[in-house]
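Dear colleagues,

As part of the handover before I leave the project, I'm documenting each prediction I ran so the next person doesn't have to rerun anything. This entry is a single chain, and its sequence is reproduced below.
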Amino acid sequence: MAKYNPYITPKLFRFFRDLKKNNDRDWFQANKQRYEDDVRDPLLAFIDEFTGPLYKISPHYRAEAKKVGGSLFRIFRDIRFAKDKTPYKTHAGVHFRHENAKDAHAPGFYLHIAPGEVFMGAGIWHPETAVGRQIRGAIIEHPEKWKKAMKSAAFARHGFGLEGDVYKRPPAGIDGEHPLIADLMRKDFIALADLTEKEVCAADFPKVFAAMCKSTTAYMKFLTEAVGQPF
């Protein structure tokens, strides 16, 4: 019989598969206890457990096990301007932010858990224009430091690769012939590594996740310092 960690189990994936088929308020209210027992409360415990390992990676990042406003994203979708009016997210998102972050667009560690789509991320997704400019400036000023961050053996071993949107033309002030132009064309500075349902449910996943976060240290340190924050 397979051994699971106490935080992420097949029950979480069953809940989201069922929610995807029944994404309405009546079904959710009837199954709210399932959500709390199989998704929310175990993930809050996972976040609380990660406080120590995260502090060893950086004392400036926070694991906040709160039902609202902490490291666990709300399950409710913002449908005010969306064509899709289904009220609930069919995935769980956990985000460990910098202590000085005001929103989700600052450097952070992220875990995405959904049926058929599980991955871990590190970096900044859709940074504000000024923040993106700071990062590109740091890459230009410290190219060797940036390249070293990308070539970490542990970073590669865990399967991390840079993902996200890119500009169609070089941003203002960027030399199109710069040797690092591929990275300077990025809108997002996010490194992603794919996982499987089996891997995140495994008994050793909390340790594996900590090791994955640690493997991004050089990359995260570069980004954090590029935007003027301590790592």
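The domain at 10-68+84-226 is CATH 3.30.930 (BirA Bifunctional Protein; domain 2). The chain has one domain: 10-68+84-226.

All the best with the project,
I.
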